[in-house]
Specification:
The chain has two domains: 90 residues, no CATH class; 73 residues, no CATH class. 52% of the residues lie in helices and 4% in strands. The protein has six helices and four strands; from the N terminus they run βααββααβαα. The strands form two sheets. Strands 1-3 form a two-stranded antiparallel sheet. A two-stranded antiparallel sheet has the order 2-4. Helix 1 crosses helix 5 and helix 5 packs across helix 6. The longest helix is centred in the C-terminal third of the chain and has 50 residues.
């Protein structure tokens, strides 16, 4: 079973993810990241966001809310769309009786750097769109901290092992590309 229910992103829940507080306090709602790992997916529940791999949506909702934002490539379009649904007065509901198979990561796994950067761009676009300049800057700070720490831990792990691992190299490549993106890239957004 995959985590399909999420809360809207906040600086706090992203901080909890970036610092691994969500893993340390796995069943805590307070320290949870966006993913609702504390929810056992055993009942109908109104949630902020449903992961976009499988949804059933009323035609009237599409007519009112519109389609997915095309500026969000592959990631974040479900979060943005659910936020727009709630703002328009629609509810987003998890139903445990629906089942779907989602080959999570099968397409993106061979290209970890490319898709990590694409995800980061989408996250930053979402933050600028819904939380403005200062929200985006806060998210950039959290991302920068996360990737600097991740890169540092991968370097230390290499020193301890006295050799580089493939997994450590990928982590360093991903974090390095993401750090460059955070420091240099201006997120383009539709006005």
């Amino acid at each position: 079973m995959q985590s399909t229910c999420r809360r809207f992103p906040t600086l706090w829940n992203n901080f909890c993810s970036a610092t691994s507080l969500e893993k340390v306090f796995k069943n805590s709602k307070f320290f949870a990241g966006e993913h609702m790992f504390y929810f056992p997916h055993d009942r109908i529940l109104h949630v902020d966001v449903l992961v976009g791999c499988f949804s059933m949506i009323r035609r009237e909702t599409f007519d009112q809310v519109g389609l997915l934002d095309e500026n969000l490539f592959i990631y974040g379009d479900d979060v943005d769309w659910c936020r727009r649904c709630w703002k328009a007065g629609w509810e987003v509901v998890f139903f445990p009786g629906a089942r779907a198979i989602h080959d999570r990561g099968k397409i993106t796994a061979p290209y970890p750097v490319r898709f990590a950067v694409a995800q980061q761009r989408s996250v930053l676009y979402y933050w600028r769109k819904h939380h403005g300049f200062w929200g985006e800057m806060g998210m950039r700070g959290i991302m920068l901290f996360h990737h600097l720490a991740r890169y540092g831990f991968a370097l230390v792990a290499d020193l301890i092992r006295r050799e580089q691992s493939d997994q450590g190299n990928v982590r360093k490549q991903v974090s390095s590309a993401c750090i460059r993106g955070i420091l240099s890239e201006r997120v383009r957004h539709a006005a």
